[in-house]
Structure formats: C-alpha cells, structure tokens
Design goal:
The chain is an alpha+beta fold and about 450 residues long. The protein is built from 14 helices and seven strands. The chain has a four-stranded antiparallel sheet with strand order 4-3-6-5. It has a three-stranded antiparallel sheet with strand order 2-1-7.
C-alpha cells in the first residue's frame, strides 16, 4: 500500500476531539495573553470589592467606636486635673431627668387637675434648657469637694455608708410608725370686727358728681397734696419686745436599727433600687461633703457678737414696703410673718429669729444688724439679700454672747458655701462642654421620657 493510502487511513482513524485537545494542550500566545488579562481583571474586581467592603466596615466600625467609646470618654470638665467624662455627665443628667419624670407621674397618679399635670410636663420639657448646666455644676462641686477631702486626708469607709443608711432607714421607720392624731371637733367662733388703729381714717368712697351744664364754664379744681404711700398715716407705739426668744427645738434622731432589722430593711431597699452602687455613691458623696464642711468649720468661734432680731423676708421690694405700711398701721408682726412664711423665699424665715450670731446669716444681714448706724426697735428700709428683700428690727445687741447649736450650724453652712463658691472660680477648673456634647447627652438622657410625658399630657387632656 502506498504512503498516501496509509496517511488517509490514519486521518480517518483519528477522533474529532483529538485536535482540540492537542490545541488546548499547547495554547497560543494570544490565548495565553487573553487568559492572563481575564485573571488580572478578576483579581482587580475582587480586590476592589474587598477594599470597598473593608472601607465600609471601617467607617461603620469607626463610627461605632467613636459613638460608644471615644466620644463618651471625652472630658466635659477638668477639675484640679481630674476629668469629668461625657459618659459620667450623661448618667448624672439621666438620673435628674428620671427624677423629674417621677414627679410628673406622681402628680398624674394623685389625680391633680389637668392644668397642674400639664404644667408639670411643661416643666419637664423645659428642664433641658437649664438642667444640663445645673448638672454639670453639681458634678464640678462634687469634684471640688473630693479634691479638698483628698488634700485634708478625709475619706468615707463602707461602714460609714452603712451607718448613714441605717440612720436613714431608722428615721423612715419612725415616720411610718408615728401615731396618727385623732381628729377632734373644733369650734369656729363667729368673726368679729377688726379694731382699727387709733387715728386710722378709711379712704372715702367716691360719690358720683352731678352732670354739669355744657354751657357753663368748667370749674378748675384746686390742687391737692399727694400722699406718699410710704409715709405712715398714723403714729404707732414701738412693737413690744420679748425679753427672751422662743427656743428652737431640733428633731432627735431615731434609734438606729439592730443588725437583723437593718439587713432586712436594706434588702427591701435594694430590691427597689435601679443601681445599688449608684445609691451608695450618692450617700458617700453626702458624707464626704459633711466631713469637708466640719473640717472647714472646726475653728469657728463659740461666742461673740450677737443680736436679737425680728425679720420679714419678701420676694420683691414692693412686698417689703407693704409690710412696713402694715406694721405702721398696727398689724401684728406675727400675722405678717405667718403670711411671709407661707411662701418662704430662698429658705429665709420671717418672724422672731431670737439671738443671731454674727456670721450665721448673710453678709448683707450682718452689715445691717451689727452696724451702729442701725437703731434699735425700729424697722429698717428694705434691703436686698440675694434674690429677695428683707426688713429687720433689732431688739437688742450684745458685743459678746454664747452661740447655740443652731447658730453654729448656720455659720458652718455659710463658711462652706463661701468656700465652695470661691473654689469653683479656680483657674484649675476648666469647663469644656461643647454644644455637640451637650446635645448628645440631652438626647440620651431624655430618651423615652418626653414621649411618655406627651402621652401623660394627652391622657390628662382627655
């Protein structure tokens, strides 16, 4: 057989896929280049997708870290080197918001009128205008006190906290176990006419004048003297003074609870607390405040200048002027003092203060009471004290006399408050609450409060 025949037989014997397999086994340069380009594009696509995903995860992770860790850890104030973080500030603001919310809920549950409930809700909503600054100021005060306690070597032990809690629980038990007074029928006397002071002339009631003829000239009235409202119209005798003042009684602390009683009562309290550690921390802060106050007032005098004083404290100067006119007209000072004490201003008591030590009241009070220019047994003109006004009458002065416990306590409070106000002005205290941090704290502190308050107001309106 010829070679040509052999080749034809060989071609007929090959399978169609053999050529393709042989070609795939030895790809051309173009195929190799195309394959490499496709693989490179695939890698770039995967790498780009991975980079985009990693970038997205990084952004989300950074935002979460910033929101949950970094941002809350930023200081909103630095007090003598110690930082007040945004997280701690927000927690304190939240507690204050919850307390306001509890007040609104209590007002609603007590069945008050809808207007009162609505007013309480508005107070809660408006609290975010000033409450953030008030809470920050409170935290700065706590840090200042803690710094002073550290300087003086003062501290609060767990046993101190237990003793204070024991006393609080004992006082609460004493209030709950106090006997309920038995109601007795009272006889209301018929009202009698009030005796007018001597020389008092009531203002005559105006009578209508006859209509004049329009054709006649109008008579010109003669000028009349205008009375000064502050000038007394009657002469009064000096207010009778008392030789001794009414002693001030202080409540006797209730006996503390026995260990078993205390543990049982404390377990009941813990079950109602949101956080036991927060509660104990607040008790510790109050104890530390008392210790610093006692340390600052350790060298206060036990005797010195004092005066027997009558006082009337009013909200405005006009109210004080009215009180002076009433005194000039013979109204008893006790009656006017009772009216003033029904609405006390800035914690001031009106009436007979008894013997007052120099330094127990305000500096303005001392300047007026212990000045030789202020006469005895005569009411002074109204003078400002803080955000209110006072008028006083000095019964007696003494250059040296003993100070009782009430005066000593007031002197200690005044020294502590003056020290605290000055310490808060230190250059080592830096307030750094930004508007963004303030809004961040308010948003989280009021979360869930205002929606509930709105529901309460809607229910009250219905």
């Amino acid at each position: 057989m010829s070679r040509e025949g052999i080749d034809n037989v060989g071609r007929r014997g090959r399978r169609p896929g053999d050529a393709a397999q042989a070609s795939a086994a030895r790809p051309t340069a173009r195929a190799l280049s195309r394959r490499a380009r496709e693989q490179l594009q695939r890698r770039i696509l995967f790498a780009s997708a991975g980079a985009v995903g990693l970038l997205a995860l990084s952004i989300v992770g950074f935002g979460a870290v910033k929101e949950l860790l970094w941002f809350p850890a930023q200081p909103v104030a630095v007090v003598f080197g110690d930082s007040i973080t945004l997280r701690g500030y927000t927690d304190a603001l939240t507690d204050q918001m919850r307390q306001l919310q509890a007040q609104v809920a209590q007002a609603s549950n007590n069945g008050q009128n809808p207007n009162a409930i609505s007013g309480s809700v508005d107070k809660l909503i408006n609290a975010q205008e000033t409450l953030p600054e008030d809470v920050l100021d409170q935290q700065i005060e706590q840090s200042v006190i803690a710094h002073e306690a550290k300087v003086r070597g003062l501290s609060v032990q767990p046993s101190d906290i237990d003793n204070r809690v024991n006393q609080l629980l004992a006082d609460q038990r004493a209030v709950l176990n106090a006997p309920t007074p038995t109601p007795t029928s009272t006889f209301t006397p018929r009202p009698t006419a009030t005796e007018l002071p001597e020389g008092f002339v009531p203002t005559p009631t105006a009578t209508p004048s006859p209509t004049q003829d329009p054709n006649l000239p109008t008579p010109v009235p003669s000028p009349t003297a205008t009375l000064d409202p502050l000038t007394p119209t009657v002469t009064r005798t000096p207010f009778p003074t008392r030789e001794t003042s009414t002693p001030v009684t202080t409540a006797t602390p209730a006996p503390t609870l026995l260990p078993d009683e205390f543990q049982k009562a404390y377990d009941t309290v813990k079950s109602a607390l949101k956080s036991e550690s927060t509660y104990r921390a607040s008790v510790a802060q109050q104890l530390l405040r008392d210790k610093v106050k006692d340390a600052l007032g350790a060298d206060l005098p036990t005797h010195g200048p004092r005066a027997h004083v009558l006082r009337l404290a009013t909200s405005t100067k006009d109210e004080a002027r009215v009180a002076i006119i009433q005194l000039a007209q013979g109204f008893p000072v006790e009656t006017i003092a009772d009216d003033a004490n029904a609405h006390p201003v800035e914690g001031r008591t009106s009436g007979d203060l008894g013997w007052v030590a120099k330094g127990a009241e305000s500096p303005e009070f001392d300047d007026m009471v212990f000045s030789s220019d202020t006469p005895l047994n005569d009411w002074t003109d109204p003078f400002p004290v803080g955000n209110h006004f006072e008028v006083i009458s000095i019964v007696e002065r003494q250059d040296d006399g003993p100070y009782d416990g009430l005066n000593t306590s007031k002197m200690k409070d005044r020294r502590f408050n003056e020290w605290l106000a000055q310490a808060k002005q230190s250059t080592e205290i830096i307030r750094d609450l930004s508007p963004q941090e303030r809004q961040w704290a308010v948003d989280r502190a009021s979360k869930g409060i205002f929606s509930t308050s709105n529901d309460t107001r809607g229910g009250a309106a219905r």
